[in-house]
Amino acid sequence: MTVFGHGTFLILLYLDKFLTGILHYVTAETKFKLSNLEIKLDKSQPQKPVDHWKEKQEALLKWKASFQNQTKNNLTSWGYNPKANATPCNIWTGISCNAAGIVNMINLTNSGIQGTLYEFTFLSFPNLEYVDLSLNQLFGAIPPQITSLSKLIYLDLSYNQFSGKIPPEIGLLNNLQLLHLNENQLNGSIPREIGQLKFLNELALQTNNLQGAIPPSFGNLKHLTTIYLYNNQLSGSLPSEIGNLKSLVELCIDNNNLSGPIPSSLGDLTNLTLLYLFKNNLSGTIPKEIGNLKSIVDLELSQNQLNGSIPTSLGDLSNLEKLFLSANKLSGSIPQEMENLMKLTVLQLDTNNFSGYLPQNIFQGGSLENFTAHTNHLIGPIPKSLKTCKSLVRVRLEGNQLTGNISEDFGDYPNLQFIDLSHNNLHGEISQLWGQCPQLATLRIAGNNLTGRIPPEISHATQIHELDLSSNSLVGVIPKDFGRLTSLVN
Ligand SMILES: *[C@@H]1O[C@H](CO)[C@@H](O)[C@H](O)[C@H]1NC(C)=O
Ligand SMILES: *[C@@H]1O[C@H](CO)[C@@H](O)[C@H](O)[C@H]1NC(C)=O
Ligand SMILES: *[C@@H]1O[C@H](CO)[C@@H](O)[C@H](O)[C@H]1NC(C)=O
Ligand SMILES: *[C@@H]1O[C@H](CO)[C@@H](O)[C@H](O)[C@H]1NC(C)=O
Ligand SMILES: *[C@@H]1O[C@H](CO)[C@@H](O)[C@H](O)[C@H]1NC(C)=O
Ligand SMILES: *[C@@H]1O[C@H](CO)[C@@H](O)[C@H](O)[C@H]1NC(C)=O
Ligand SMILES: *[C@@H]1O[C@H](CO)[C@@H](O)[C@H](O)[C@H]1NC(C)=O
Ligand SMILES: *[C@@H]1O[C@H](CO)[C@@H](O)[C@H](O)[C@H]1NC(C)=O
Ligand SMILES: *[C@@H]1O[C@H](CO)[C@@H](O)[C@H](O)[C@H]1NC(C)=O
Ligand SMILES: *[C@@H]1O[C@H](CO)[C@@H](O)[C@H](O)[C@H]1NC(C)=O
Ligand SMILES: *[C@@H]1O[C@H](CO)[C@@H](O)[C@H](O)[C@H]1NC(C)=O
Ligand SMILES: *[C@@H]1O[C@H](CO)[C@@H](O)[C@H](O)[C@H]1NC(C)=O
Fold it and tell me: Name one GO biological process term (predicted).
């Protein structure tokens, strides 16, 4: 137990007031450390042990009295008990104590509290290690006095309506391992002092109104495993110091206003499984070092201004399951090395400036569910490996210059719901096999050079509600079973 280990001015004040009450519960070791003080304080008027709990109870009740709605919260167990040693530990909802009987945790998650922290007497609880006030309706500022909780390991204020700035003083809580301030209305910039929280493991500041740059001081937080900063208005460039955070597993800064390049140092994050940078304003090329992210499972860089071509090193990411590169300015051909990504379930390459052929074996992994490459300048045939890829759910290849006779390019797909091949240069006949896709809801092959008739077998795909075969050279009649289609364009 190191309750009085630091001997700071702050803690001495606390001792002066409550020492004898506390001593009732502390260990021999601590008593020894405090022996001088004890003697000194004994000369003054010592308070009885009950006063320790009286003061804690009063502090909590004062805070509760400040709530806007006294009936909404579920703190009915909170009531003053004048008996000696009447501890709120484990009796008052959400108040827990350590083995020595000292309040070390306040957990009032999802307790219907509507109020502020302004009446919370932080100085009364200097031994708090865990504070979880998530999922309430707390509002107003986060008081800088929160730094009195110098032992704090765990601070979760997420899912409330806190506003104003994150107090820079939070950098003094140097034992913090977890800081969750997400889903509030915090504004201003992220204080660089957060870079002093050297034991921080999890940082969650997402879904606020935070502005300004990501402080380079984040590079000091060597123990960080997760950084969630998404859904803010952060700007400036991504500090290359993030590459120092070798323990990082998840880095999510999507839906901000970051500009400048993706630093090549991110390639050093070999434990990273998830990298979300989509919906920003990042420019320049995808650094080839991204190919060093051996653990990455989900890489999402869509909706930026990235240019250049896909580095062939992406083919080394053998654990990759999701790759999102949509809506950038990427060009060049899609590297054949992408065929090595055998675990891909989602591959989104649409709305770029890609040219050349699609790699012929891109579907060989057999796990791909969602594939989009629409709105590019792709040429050449539909990859042969697509025919046998039974896992497909959604396929979008429209708006390219794909060529070939498609009558034998497609198989039957048990899960396929949506396929759009419109506005390419495909020719040949419509395969009967579309009728053997039991989930198929949308089939679009408009704006090609299809010939022949619509095979009546298509109507065996009983889920189909949109069939767009317009702007082709089809002949004959519409099979009569199609009466139930809600949308049929021919
Ligand atoms: C307080 O909360 C209760 C229960 O949610 C609700 O019925 C009551 O209208 C609220 N009172 C005020 C003043 O908001
Ligand atoms: C607080 O309590 C909830 C359930 O009541 C639990 O899920 C959560 O882990 C607790 N928080 C801490 C810090 O122990
Ligand atoms: C508090 O009450 C709410 C409903 O008002 C309930 O959803 C929640 O589970 C309760 N929380 C606790 C910790 O009992
Ligand atoms: C932050 O929000 C507070 C109130 O919530 C407001 O007074 C202040 O102007 C805002 N600051 C910025 C920089 O937007
Ligand atoms: C990376 O992950 C492995 C396995 O979980 C772990 O043993 C190792 O310590 C991690 N590396 C860092 C730098 O955290
Ligand atoms: C994004 O940042 C740029 C400067 O880099 C600025 O001009 C623009 O207004 C910002 N956009 C938003 C939505 O904040
Ligand atoms: C991207 O940056 C440009 C130039 O800095 C700016 O004009 C534009 O508003 C930014 N876009 C977004 C979505 O913030
Ligand atoms: C990418 O765009 C930048 C301007 O933002 C330009 O200087 C650079 O030449 C482009 N690179 C490629 C490979 O197109
Ligand atoms: C897209 O690529 C074509 C060549 O395939 C090139 O002519 C065009 O300038 C590129 N457009 C953009 C916006 O990069
Ligand atoms: C593929 O898309 C469907 C429909 O949008 C979605 O339900 C499914 O979760 C996606 N698959 C993956 C692996 O994300
Ligand atoms: C397309 O291929 C099929 C099967 O190989 C063949 O029967 C048909 O004549 C071809 N159609 C065109 C228009 O070349
Ligand atoms: C469609 O195919 C016919 C015959 O194969 C050909 O004469 C015509 O040019 C093609 N039209 C287009 C738009 O490719």
Answer: response to other organism
CATH at 342: 3.80.10.10
Burial-class residue 288 by CB neighbours within 10 Å (0-12, 13-18, 19+): middle
Kindly state if the Cβ of 247 falls inside 6 Å of ligand 5: yes
Alpha-carbon torsion, ordered 475, 481, 485, 488, to 10 deg = 10
427 lines ligand 11 (CB under 6 A): yes
Q: Choose which residue among 73, 90, 110, 159 to substitute to test ligand 3 binding: the one with the highest number of ligand atoms within 8 A of its C-beta.
A: 110
306 C-alpha to center of ligand 8: Å? 9
The three-state (H, E, C) secondary structure of 412-481, written as one string: CCCCCCEEECCCCEEEECCCHHHHHCCCCCEEECCCCEEEECCCHHHHHCCCCCEEECCCCEECCCCCHH
Candidates 14, 20, 26, 27; CA nearest to 41 is: 20
Is residue 484 one of the residues assigned to a domain?
Answer: no
| Ligand 7 pocket residue status of 257, Cβ below 6 Å | yes
Q: What is the pLDDT of residues 127-180, one digit of tens each?
A: 999 999 999 999 999 999 999 999 999 999 999 999 999 999 999 999 999 999
Q: What does the angle CA 358 – CA 419 – CA 462 come to, to the nearest 5 degrees?
A: 150
Residue 391 CA to residue 247 CA, distance in Å, equals: 34
Task: Say how many C-beta atoms besides its own lie within 10 A of residue 437's C-beta.
Answer: 24
Determine the distance separating the centroid of ligand 5 and the alpha carbon of 367, expressed in angstroms: 28
Q: Is residue 233 part of a domain?
A: yes
Q: What is the pTM of this model?
A: 0.87
CA gap 228, 178 in Å, rounded: 12
pLDDT in tens, 111-130: 999 999 999 999 999 999 99
How many domains would you assign to the chain? Answer: 1
Question: In angstroms, how far is CA 151 from the centroid of its own chain?
Answer: 27
